[in-house]
Amino acid sequence: MKSEKFEEWFDVAFDRAVSSSSLTSDESKRASWKKVQAQIEQVNRKRKRKRRMQLSGIVAASFIAGAVFFSPSGVTKALSPIVKSVVDLGNGMIGIVIKNGDVPATVVTPKTEKPDTYVEQDNDDNNFSRLEWSKVQDSVSEPLNMDELKSKLSFSLPALTEIPAKYHFENYTLSSPSVNGKTYDKISLKYTDDEQHTLWIHLMNLKTYQSTITTVPKETEKFMLGGQEIFYSPGVYNKLLGTYQTQIIQISSDLPKDEMVTVYKSFMQIP
What we know:
Elements: H1 3-19, H2 26-64, E1 69-70, E2 82-90, E3 93-100, E4 118-120, E5 128-131, E6 134-138, H3 146-150, E7 168-177, E8 184-192, E9 198-205, E10 211-217, E11 221-225, E12 228-233, E13 238-244, E14 247-253, H4 257-267
Antiparallel strand pairs: 1-5, 1-10, 2-3, 3-10, 4-5, 6-7, 7-8, 8-9, 9-14, 11-12, 12-13, 13-14
Helix pairs in contact: 1-2
């Protein structure tokens, strides 16, 4: 909301408070100011709540759309080591590249078939595309039906039931169909707390030789947690990025870093 509108509301609130009192004593002055404060606080709460709702929608959409990735078809291997690297993208941004193994030089990688709906990348290599397949499934009842959810995914879920009880599950979104076409490789789960903070937990299973790139500012911090590298990127919506086996784990929230780390440690069962 523009500052002019806020000032207008302030003036209205102040005029109302003044007109309701003669201001002939210190007591009446204090009472009038309390009325002004109450109306200002009400305006601030509305602005904050609206802002959180807008941001939570943006965060969900940005992850559901999918990251740019390279995934050759018709290739299998027994072991899928995660390879991470950081590249300088310029303009104060870096890219965190996470790959499910390097493609051997002896492997011929056919071009990936284009799905019915996709967004072309500005790249000469047609193996790069952005999947937009998605399916939304809102939870009908709580707690989250883990058995039902597990049957829809191509990978094992971490211990989501260990997330602190103050965070309430709201819904989840499935996207990126797996190779067999019956399950999904990506899920985004939305949680909220009583203070209207929003917590997004994104889990993605990388196919063989598939890679993703996450764009973050250079101020991004790297530290170790449970023997794994974790990246923390501050912003309007803070981001915590880690990996487990062939999975990418990302938390996005307006919560501070320490609370996001606590949530990560809870469902990853890190002491």
